[in-house]
Amino acid sequence: MKRSRIPFLTSQQQTPSFSPATFLQNMTDNQPPASPPATPLLYSSDSYTISTPSPSSSYASLATSASTKSLRPKLSKSTTIASENIQVMVRCRPPSDMEEQSHEQDCWLLIPEQGTVKLDESNGTTFEYDRVFKGTDNTEIYESGIQKLVRSTMEGYNGTVFAYGQTASGKTYTMTRTAEEPGVIPKAVADVFTYIEEEAIDREFLLQVSYMEIYNEKINDLLNTGRHSTGLSIRTTTHGQDYVENLSTMAVTTPEEVMNYIELGEGRRHTSETDFNKNSSRSHTIFQLIIESKPRMSSLASVRTSRLNLIDLAGSEKVATNTERRQEGSFINKSLLTLGKVITQLNEGAKHIPYRDSKLTRILSASLSGNDRVAVICTINPAWKSKDESTNTLRFAQGVKKVRINPKITQVAQNSRLQNYKEQIVELEIQMQRKTEQEAETKER
Ligand SMILES: Nc1ncnc2c1ncn2[C@@H]1O[C@H](COP(=O)(O)OP(=O)(O)OP(=O)(O)O)[C@@H](O)[C@H]1O
């Protein structure tokens, strides 16, 4: 078995060459991604040795084993803070070349200072949100609307960010990487590592990622192409928490590694040219960062565990001409309709919320009904011809804004992944020590 020493993620030791500016710059320079590591790593504190799995172990099976139910943390106690609203932002993208050529006036009047959007004509309804944005700048959106949420996930709160809007309104542009303008996901990844390096002086971290899509109402693992990578099921733990069975989770130690996994997943996501968008997302994707941390100096202290969900929804759309696109569109529209119903019923205080009516709402149920901090970016098109769809998006955004949530920090007493990994590492160290002693004895004889 091959061994190397790799530090556990702490502020002093983590990736010495990491700089968020260079990391994002490298992405914008369009560098080809390095391949993801052949095997996920178990990493450790200074006193432990890291072990890479044996060459015969397959990437897929290791990935799957990391997500087995036995490694699920036992919840022990949680700290609640006052309830708050979901943060809602609206973004209107600039007109496309085609829209420019048709010399249409912009349909919407956005006033960022007031957080309002209204039809650019007299007597239109005025919609009000936490923030509204125009233009191409993803940094502004990240820094003013998302960064605080991302940083609070490093402190133990669960966080969810999702982009919602009709097809070709700019959800993927806002959430994922583009060569010119890195979106919320790469910015969040860079920020997580900056936080560990600069602010989490007394804590050590274990980070893992998963990436899935919901395509035609089936859940596919985007980081694993093995036998259990498509048509995954949602199960419920004895604590009543839903989880995706057999979804792989990968341990990560650098932002580049995370981005390599994202790149891998994006390559596997279903996208196609449609009547409305040259590169339309045909599935909802959920990228998850699982964060465990504990005070550096104490092995007995409670472990904090939290997750950050970054979600790029597929866009609602009118009926497409191509049969396959039409079928995909009907699955997309149905799940978005269910999401709308869930939001309405949460606001009405309904006893039964129809989370189980779609995979998307079932996966989002923990975020919407529970203890996550949630931010939603609703994207609209500027054109008059999209006025009705944009109005629907603005109404959805108003509904979401009313939903109350109660963010909590969850502490895990024992049996966390972090603890399990450390125990495995100690066990391997002992075995290694014995083997070395035996070999030395044999040589002496
Ligand atoms: N804020 C923006 N600034 C400049 N261009 C943008 C912006 N938002 C979107 N675009 C461009 O508009 C087009 C559609 O955007 P994008 O693919 O992100 O939409 P989408 O909502 O994710 O669509 P779908 O639901 O079909 O996947 C792309 O060419 C994208 O580059």
UniProtKB/TrEMBL annotation:
Keywords: ATP-binding, Coiled coil, Hydrolase, Microtubule, Motor protein, Nucleotide-binding
UniProt-listed InterPro entries: Kinesin-like_fam, Kinesin_motor_CS, Kinesin_motor_dom, Kinesin_motor_dom_sf, P-loop_NTPase
Keyword Coiled coil: yes
Annotated ATP binding sites: G165, Q166, T167, A168, S169, G170, K171, T172
Sequence ranges assigned to domain Kinesin motor in this UniProt record: 85-403
Compositionally skewed regions (Polar residues) per UniProt: 9-32
GO cellular component: microtubule
Gene Ontology terms for molecular function: ATP binding; hydrolase activity; microtubule binding; microtubule motor activity
Ranges in a coiled coil: 411-445
S-adenosyl-L-methionine keyword on record: no
BP terms from Gene Ontology: microtubule-based movement; mitotic cell cycle
Disordered, as annotated region: 1-42
Gene3D superfamilies from the UniProt entry: Kinesin motor domain
Family indicated by similarity: Belongs to the TRAFAC class myosin-kinesin ATPase superfamily. Kinesin family.
UniProt name for this protein: Kinesin-like protein
Native organism taxonomy: Eukaryota, Fungi, Fungi incertae sedis, Mucoromycota, Mucoromycotina
